[in-house]
């Protein structure tokens, strides 16, 4: 009993330390976002101060408002996620069910396109987009984002498709259902958890993208991850507005995760118990 209690205590301490390290930057960002400049630079830092909403007002309604940039991120990340799921799900199903001749080669190629360092693809993407006259456009950034979110969607969905018993589809085919009907009526309802988890991961990946947005965007199309750097200059860093912008940028992902948390847990645990 003493050994088990000791293991339990060590586990609790490890979890608390991990959560502290993980939560501290978020809490610090939230606290800094409601501080005046004089409170931000107070040393040693103090948790006793007069909160202010001036930073959020500057970010949402001031000269450096991020409302338009936030909408740009919503449009690009949402379009990327929609296209990645519409294209990735059928491809993942094909990888899982069809006995393609070059299946292994195509699978390795798909994985490679996701793992390759993105900084090595900036220049080729820039040349292609400039040739197509798509630089600094929503469509251009969406297509670029699709180049690394589509492989992610395929590889995540392949595992969920492989976990489904093929006998379910075979039974539907015996009842004279086509492969498309079997996929729509039998397979798709069973993949709801996996679809939710994959959609969230793809959306977060697109939402957090910075390198391609910085190199291939511009004044017309500027996601919020790039626009936040308006508060950083050579002379000074406006920590209050910067942290307020960071909080606002985190909200869509947090809200989406909370709304779909049950589906995400179901998708992450799918196939662990059969």
TrEMBL record:
Subcellular location: Cell membrane
Domain ABC transmembrane type-1, first and last residues per copy: 70-260
Keyword terms, alphabetized: Cell membrane, Membrane, Transmembrane, Transmembrane helix, Transport
Transmembrane segments: 7-31, 70-96, 108-132, 138-158, 238-259
PROSITE patterns to which the protein is assigned, alphabetical: ABC_TM1
Chief location bin: membrane
One CC-aspect GO term: plasma membrane
Domain of life the protein comes from: Bacteria
Keyword Cell wall biogenesis/degradation set for record: no
Any one Gene Ontology BP term: transmembrane transport
InterPro entries recorded: BP-dep_ABC_trans_perm (IPR050901), MetI-like (IPR000515), MetI-like_sf (IPR035906)
Keyword Signal: no
Protein family membership: Belongs to the binding-protein-dependent transport system permease family.
Protein name (Swiss-Prot/TrEMBL): Carbohydrate ABC transporter permease
């Amino acid at each position: 009993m003493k050994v088990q209690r000791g293991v339990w205590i060590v586990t609790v301490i490890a979890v608390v330390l991990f959560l502290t390290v993980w939560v501290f930057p978020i809490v610090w960002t939230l606290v800094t976002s409601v501080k005046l400049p004089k409170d931000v630079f107070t040393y040693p830092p103090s948790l006793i101060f007069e909160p202010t909403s001036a930073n959020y007002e500057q970010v949402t309604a001031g000269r450096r408002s991020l409302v338009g940039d936030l909408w740009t991120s919503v449009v690009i990340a949402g379009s990327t996620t929609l296209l990645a799921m519409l294209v990735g799900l059928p491809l993942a199903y094909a990888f899982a069910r069809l006995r393609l001749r070059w299946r292994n080669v195509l699978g390795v190629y798909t994985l490679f396109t996701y793992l390759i360092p993105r900084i090595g693809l900036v220049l080729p993407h820039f040349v292609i987009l400039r040739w197509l006259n798509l630089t600094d456009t929503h469509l251009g950034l969406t297509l670029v984002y699709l180049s690394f979110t589509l492989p992610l969607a395929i590889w995540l969905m392949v595992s969920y498709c492989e976990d489904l018993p093929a006998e379910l589809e075979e039974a539907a085919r015996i009842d004279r259902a086509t492969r498309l009907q079997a996929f729509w009526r039998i397979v798709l309802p069973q993949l709801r958890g996996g679809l939710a988890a994959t959609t969230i991961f793809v959306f977060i990946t697109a939402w957090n993208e910075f390198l391609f947005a910085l190199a291939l965007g511009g004044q017309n199309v500027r996601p919020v991850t790039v626009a936040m750097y308006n508060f950083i200059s050579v002379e000074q860093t406006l920590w209050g507005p910067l942290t307020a912008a960071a909080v606002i940028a985190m909200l869509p992902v947090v809200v989406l995760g909370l709304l779909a948390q049950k589906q995400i847990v179901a998708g992450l645990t799918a196939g662990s118990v059969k």
